[in-house]
């Protein structure tokens, strides 16, 4: 009996939860949510992050070049017939025992090498790899901001498409109401039939416009979902984006200066140029004497030598005296690539300045358009209301009413575009100055 009561209570709680859950408000997806999903799932960004990790690992490998290197190797070998020493002694031939017992032998070796003097080759190689890792990290940071901007553009495109569908739907509803009114008026013989025909044709065009707007909305949603790694058919509920405030106290010149300081692409190209210069220095140093210490221990199983264990220490020396210009040409190649990277950096700085100027001007224009089009929407709404009232009492013809409908739709679209252009300009400005 107790078990039945517990089960009944559990079923009651489950039923209550199922009834309550649909009534709970569903939180809209924000731009921050979209950024988190994209940064976690985007494959292009994951590839760039892996490249940055590879550059960091290469820098670690270069740093290890200055430390001693210890190597161990061994082998087992078997002869078909073990050799022996044979040489003449006092007119006779002396034949030693077989070099190895049972036609096989073991050998092992432990070798320690330490670079002592490399003319700066190792130091330059380490510096080049470290700068290369820094350049790769800058590329990664720039890719993160590029992805966030791409997601923001797609997010705004979905909002824009949604507003276009809403405006087109409102026009269809308004024209449908107008057609109904004209049909009643025609039955009362207060208007001609061509008024009804003209309104019906306009309604058909409006419905076609709605279909196109819905198609654009579906494409915008699919593109947005692809960036987030979500199913393309998912229909997200997106939160509206607030209009950005004007850059109070931020002149165009200060924004350009901030961009030159913050943009990771500039620091990345600077690091790449320095890395190539260090690589050229490392190549030049390889043409100078290279000196190193070594210590060696070997074990060689045999029956002839006085022992099987050997140890030695020594100094290794290598100097490439003539290589037909290989080292010099490779060094010049890296130096030229470094100069090219500096030219790229200077060109990018100019393009960034133009980008900041452009998005700053676009934002200022969009904010001005918002105010103008806000008033235009109010005026178009009042114009439509007045013309429909005049048409109902015979003081205006249907052409004026249909023109008022078109003006209203245009005003709404212009206002929505101005608002979203202002939002997008603010996001583009953040990317342009490196703050996104």
Fill in the keyword field for this structure.
alpha+beta, 66% helix, two-stranded antiparallel ribbon, Outer membrane efflux proteins (OEP), four-stranded antiparallel beta sheet, elongated, 6 strands
Give the strand line-up of the largest sheet: 1-4-5-6
CATH class: Mainly Alpha
Distance between the termini: 63 Å
Broad shape: elongated
Report the sheet with the most strands, covering strand number, pairing sense and barrel closure. 4 strands, antiparallel
Number of strands: 6
Cα Rg: 40 Å
On the 0 to 100 scale, the average pLDDT is 86
Strand-helix topology:
Blueprint: H1 2-20, H2 31-41, H3 43-63, E1 69-78, E2 84-89, E3 92-98, E4 104-117, H4 121-187, H5 193-228, H6 252-262, H7 264-285, E5 290-300, E6 309-318, H8 326-392, H9 398-432
Antiparallel strand pairs: 1-4, 2-3, 4-5, 5-6
Helix pairs in contact: 2-4, 3-4, 4-5, 4-7, 4-9, 6-8, 7-8, 8-9
Characterize the structure shown.
The chain has a single domain, classed as Outer membrane efflux proteins (OEP), CATH 1.20.1600. The chain contains 9 helices and 6 strands, in the order αααββββααααββαα. Strands 1-4-5-6 form a 4-stranded antiparallel β-sheet, with no helix packed on it. It has a two-stranded antiparallel sheet with strand order 2-3. β5 and β6 form a beta hairpin. The chain is elongated. The protein starts with a helix and ends with a helix.
